[in-house]
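Page 47, continued from p. 46.
Same chain as before, 149 aa.
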Amino acid sequence: MGKAMEDMRASAPSFSPKEKSEVDPLQVGKGGGKKYTKKESTEPEIGSGNANAWANLGHAGGGRVKGVNYDKKSCYERALECDDKFAKVWYLLGIAGGGSVKGVAYDKKSCYTRALECDNKDANAWANLGNAGGGRVKGANYDKKGCYT
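Result:
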C-alpha cells in the first residue's frame, strides 16, 4: 500500500458498527467549505461563525482548534450555534446521542425532529426518528410507521 493511501486511511474518521449504519452517506457542509481532517484542524478558517467548518471537523471525528480539543459532538454543537437551521448537523448530533445548543439540551430524538423541521425530505432523519419511536414534526404527530412511509 502506498504512502498516500496509508495517510488517507489514518486520517479517516472511525465509526462504531452502530454509527456506520446511521451515518449519512451525503457530505456534510456542501456549501463549499474546506473539508478538515484531524491533522488539519488547527486551520485558522475555523472561527466562531463558520458552521460548515465546525460540521466538517465534527464529521472528521473532532480535533484541536486554537489550543482546545473538540470531540465530534462539541463540533456539531458549535456548528449549530453558528447556524441552527443546518439540518444535516442536527441529524449528526442525533447520531452522536444529542447535545446542548444555545443552552438547550436535545436528546437524539429531538435532534432528528429539529433536522426534519429544517429539511422534511431528509430520509435518514425520518428513518432514525422512526427508530426512536416517532415524534412531532411541524405540528404533526408521526408514529414509528408514519416515519417510514
